[in-house]
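User: Is it possible to get a 3D structure for a protein together with its bound compound? The compound here is nicotinamide-adenine-dinucleotide. I've pasted both below.
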Amino acid sequence: TMAQSKSLLVLENFIGGKFVPCSSYIDSYNPSTGDVYCKVPDSGKEEVEAAVKAAKDAFPVWSSKSPLERSQILNKLADLIEQDLEAFAQAESKDQGKTITFARTVDIPRAAYNFRFFASSILHHVTECTEMATMGCVHYTSRAPVGVAGLISPWNLPLYLLTWKIAPAIACGNTVVAKPSEMTSVTAWMMCKLMEKAGVPHGVVNIVFGTGAKAGEALVCHPDVPLISFTGSTLTAQRITEKSAPHCKRLSLELGGKNPAIIFDDADLSQCIPTTLRSSFANQGEICLCTSRIFVQRGIYSEFLKRFVAEAKKWKTGNPSDPTVNMGALISKEHLEKVRNYVKKAQAEGAKILCGEGVDSLALPPGNQKGYFMLPTVITEVKDESCCMQEEIFGPVTCVVPFDTEEEVIKRANGVKYGLAATVWSSNVGRVHRVAHRLQSGLVWTNCWLVRDLNLPFGGMKASGIGREGAKDSYEFFTEVKTITIKH
Ligand code: NAD
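Assistant: Yes, that's possible. Here is the predicted structure of the complex:
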């Protein structure tokens, strides 16, 4: 009805410092109610063209500013996001389905911190210099921004992952055209409203909203965008690699995972169980770093399983804006169906579902009956070859299986196409190092999970990606290096 459409939030693209309406729009749903509540621009070639032009025009001035000037602007943007933290958190929770608690404590603080972190780290890089005394030469390297950076981000940690790209890109002096996920565009649009006040010059940050197939691909194929930083699925990354190949673009690809937790019989279960619960189900299991294969040494297998399932049953699933809720709604109806189908397939193969989907009943408040909810689900008696043990599910589903020896579990943990993050639980220091070294995984957490130092490289091996992000790694990705030799 007219009344309804009037109350819808309508987003606009942000190009050259101005909000620009689009000729067509996509519906965006509130995952916790199933209602359409927002219209997202359905941008294509034309809008991307305008954004790239604005970014190109802004590049000469922005790239010639000193790191300190850029740093001050990034810090100001961080201040402004922090001032509006509550509004951003509410919007992220409504748009994505995640709990308000998670948005308040993880997503938005980290989005602000991303700007603060790169505002600082950009001031501290040193380039290399070598001397060749016998030739009378010194060599040194200089680094310069590349140009217009194309940034594409997913829906699971919307503002968190988008700012993890925008911050280093502009700190290094590039200008950007970013495309957030069409399913979670609201907080990116809200951030655009802060750009002017933060002192970000027009055209330095441009945001084009729309689908991957239209807006995303137009960006990937644009000849004046020499680098693409992408976070999303492995399948999309293959497409982006193909489409960008004719232009020889520089790519950073942060992709999916099928992350193992390896729990030895000397693990401290009082720490391990609550952390593994979080690593399996935090953010509805929609974090690329989430655990979905739990290998438990046989001696403690039944005790672990009993305690883990008992704790999983205590997790409260429901209205994301209720601060006592642990798990909100999944991103979309289609995604919920996909996740549920994995559970069905496991069942058909003879696996056991110990709690959650199809086993326990989900009681939702009246306003959330049409939301995309499911309970934390634990699967066992599942074979390593099963799709539930091989493919990324990206939902609140985790498999628990026993193992006997260190040698065996390393082989099984490595037996998937992915290699993003692994956790190892043991009180034996020697074993922890040994196992960590042999896991095919870009990140290994031992006796903890998701503890990050943004200085250090983040990224995956195998089908989990190409390249790393972090203080030094992002600086190297977003700059072009040159070696200069001086003879005296
Ligand atoms: P997705 O690949 O479907 O979409 C990611 C982004 O790419 C979206 O903005 C989308 O619109 C865009 N896109 C889709 N097709 C495109 C195309 N042909 N050309 C250009 N852009 C295109 O991923 P998703 O479903 O939004 O996110 C979930 C995935 O992201 C999971 O696989 C998850 O593991 C992964 N992820 C990885 C990391 C990491 O750091 N490694 C972090 C978060 C999420």
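The pocket of nicotinamide-adenine-dinucleotide is lined by residues 152-156, 161, 179, 181-182, 211-213, 216-217, 220, 231-233, 236, 239-240, 254-257, 288, 392, 394, 420, 460, 465 (CB under 6 Å). The chain has two domains: 9-255+464-487, 259-446.
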